[in-house]
Structures are given as structure tokens and as C-alpha cells.
């Protein structure tokens, strides 16, 4: 395990030396990785740090508002880019293409903000598993394999690049971040786009967002790595004595240490039944709910 005190001192020194007298923007998502980076960078360069939150329209319910509450005191720059992301993803069905489109668009937005604020550096919360999976061809993380090869920054700084997720959580606790951040489940950089199999549309995002919230609420007390909902297709069903063609939601819940491998979270039948009934009754467009029993490998944790 990492020596947290030494790591924090080293990371602050690295950021301070690389940025020098300049400014840096940080890609802030509200997850534990980017939140830890934000605190480290703020300690290193103070108000020369510009935290940027891009609302892609692909976030969990209530997430953008909560980010404003927690990080507003740092001079948070809030970018509403929902229309840009939905336009860029229109008609796209390939999972890797989705990730690369999202990674590219993120960087172009960060470049615009950096130009406005005369910032030369980008700081992001890349962790070691992101690098391993992207370089190994398992999937393109939007901040590694999905990151464009050409960009306008003088440099990209990744203070957490050698840490695993559990080590990042240790650093978060040491820095005094709120428990909801320290213990937050991993959430993919491309957001709900990779929890929709096939084309991403505003309607599908809204459905999977609601389903995701139900799964998180119902499994809140379970010890887990991740628990979420994904929209995986359409199937026939019966609602109000009428045959309908609605969406299929998959429940995914796993245990893991670092996300490199994962096992299925044992959930009792009555809990699964309750989740199913809530999803199908609270989201009229859903006709079927399934539970994914596949470990990693052979499956990945996310559906895309």
C-alpha cells in the first residue's frame, strides 16, 4: 500500500514544479480520482488552478448540482455541453468509437476553457488500472486510449497514475474529503453513454439514469465495488393488458479490489424482485429487467 503522507507531499511538489508560475485546469467529475487531484492541485498552486466540470448530459441524477456545492469555493467553471455530446454521439453504436468521441470532445472543451483563462496545463485523475486496460486493448479509457494524440496544452499532469483505486480512497480520507466522495463507487468517464448498448439518445439516457438511481438506492447497504443499471436493448412486454415493445434493463453488481478482476455480488432474490418491480413500475418504458451473473473476466464490468 502507498505511504499516504509521502505520496501527498510528492504529488503537491510534482504539480507545483510542472506548472511553475503558470495556470492549470483540472478535469473534475466528482468521482474520487478527480476530486483527490483537485485538492492536491489546489494545495500546490492555489487560485492558479481552474477546476472545470463539463455537464455532458451523461451524468448520474443530481450529480452536476452536487459538484457545484462541494467544489464551488475553488472557483469552479461549469460548462453545459449536453447538446455538443448528444450531437457528436448521434448514430454511433461502436463502444470504442463512443469512448474516443467523448475523450476527444472533453479535451477540445478543456482547451477552450484553458484559452479563456490562459492556462497551459491539464491535470486529470488517471489511475494505474486506466493505463493498464487502455494499453492492453481491453478498452479505451476516455482519459488514456480515448485521449487525442494532438492537443494544445504544454503538458498533461497525472498525479495518481501509479495508484490503484483503493489507494486513491486512502489519500482522499487523509485529505479530509467528504465520505460520499471517498467511498463513491467508480463511475465511467464517458458516463451513462457506456451503460447504453447501441446509439445514445436523450430518451435512453434518462431511462438508464432513473434505473441506475433505483439500483444504487436499493443496494446502498451492500459491500460492493460497483452496482448500476444498463440499458441493453428492447423486448416485448405487457403493460395494462396491452402488448408493448419496451427497453431491457440489466442490473450489474460486482465485488473487486481494483477493478482489474471482479466477481458477482450475491443479492437475495427478494431484493432483486423489489428492484425489478420498482424499475418496471417507475419507468414505464421498461418492460424487462435481468441480472448479469458474469464475472470479469470474461466480461468487463461496464457493458461497453
Automatic annotation (TrEMBL):
Where in the numbering of this chain does the GMPS ATP-PPase domain appear?
Answer: 2-184
Quote the record's binding site residues for ATP: 29-35
Query: Top enzyme class of this protein?
Result: ligase
Under Gene3D superfamilies, the record lists:
3.30.300.10, HUPs (3.40.50.620)
Stated EC number for the protein is: 6.3.5.2
The question of whether Transcription is a record keyword is answered with no
Q: InterPro entries attached here?
A: GMP_synth_C, GMP_synthase_B, GMPS_ATP_PPase_dom, NAD/GMP_synthase, Rossmann-like_a/b/a_fold
Pathway recorded for this protein:
Purine metabolism; GMP biosynthesis; GMP from XMP (L-Gln route): step 1/1
Protein origin, superkingdom:
Archaea
Q: How does it assemble?
A: Heterodimer composed of a glutamine amidotransferase subunit (A) and a GMP-binding subunit (B).
Role, per record: Catalyzes the synthesis of GMP from XMP.
Protein's name according to its UniProt entry: GMP synthase [glutamine-hydrolyzing] subunit B
Query: What is the protein's species of origin?
Result: Archaeoglobus profundus (strain DSM 5631 / JCM 9629 / NBRC 100127 / Av18)
Q: Which gene encodes it?
A: guaAB
Amino acid at each position: 500500500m502507498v505511504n499516504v503522507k509521502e505520496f501527498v507531499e510528492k504529488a503537491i511538489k510534482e504539480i507545483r514544479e510542472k506548472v511553475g508560475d503558470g495556470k492549470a485546469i483540472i478535469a473534475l467529475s466528482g468521482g474520487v480520482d478527480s476530486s483527490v487531484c483537485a485538492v492536491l492541485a489546489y494545495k500546490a498552486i492555489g487560485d492558479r488552478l481552474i477546476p472545470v466540470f463539463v455537464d455532458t448530459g451523461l451524468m448520474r441524477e443530481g450529480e452536476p448540482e452536487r459538484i457545484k456545492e462541494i467544489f464551488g469555493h475553488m472557483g469552479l467553471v461549469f460548462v453545459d455541453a449536453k447538446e455538443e455530446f448528444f450531437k457528436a454521439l448521434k448514430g454511433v453504436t461502436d463502444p470504442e468509437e463512443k469512448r474516443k468521441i467523448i475523450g476527444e470532445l472533453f479535451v477540445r472543451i478543456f482547451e477552450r476553457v484553458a484559452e479563456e483563462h490562459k492556462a497551459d496545463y491539464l491535470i486529470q485523475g488517471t489511475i494505474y488500472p486506466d493505463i493498464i486496460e487502455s494499453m492492453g486493448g481491453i478498452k479505451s479509457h476516455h482519459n488514456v486510449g480515448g485521449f487525442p494524440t494532438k492537443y494544445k496544452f504544454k503538458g498533461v499532469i497525472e498525479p495518481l497514475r501509479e495508484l490503484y483505486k483503493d489507494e486513491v480512497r486512502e489519500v482522499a480520507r487523509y485529505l479530509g474529503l467528504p465520505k460520499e466522495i471517498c467511498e463513491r463507487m467508480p463511475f465511467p468517464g464517458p458516463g451513462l453513454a457506456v451503460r447504453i448498448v447501441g446509439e445514445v439518445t436523450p430518451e435512453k439516457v434518462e431511462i438508464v439514469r432513473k434505473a441506475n438511481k433505483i439500483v444504487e438506492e436499493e443496494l446502498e447497504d451492500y459491500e460492493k465495488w460497483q452496482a448500476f443499471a444498463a440499458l441493453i436493448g428492447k423486448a416485448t412486454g405487457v403493460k395494462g393488458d396491452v402488448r408493448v415493445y419496451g427497453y431491457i434493463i440489466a442490473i450489474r453488481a460486482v465485488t473487486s479490489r481494483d477493478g482489474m478482476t471482479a466477481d458477482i455480488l450475491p443479492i437475495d432474490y427478494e431484493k432483486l424482485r423489489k428492484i425489478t418491480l420498482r424499475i418496471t413500475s417507475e419507468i414505464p418504458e421498461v418492460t424487462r429487467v435481468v441480472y448479469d451473473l458474469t464475472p470479469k473476466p470474461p466480461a468487463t464490468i461496464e457493458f461497453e
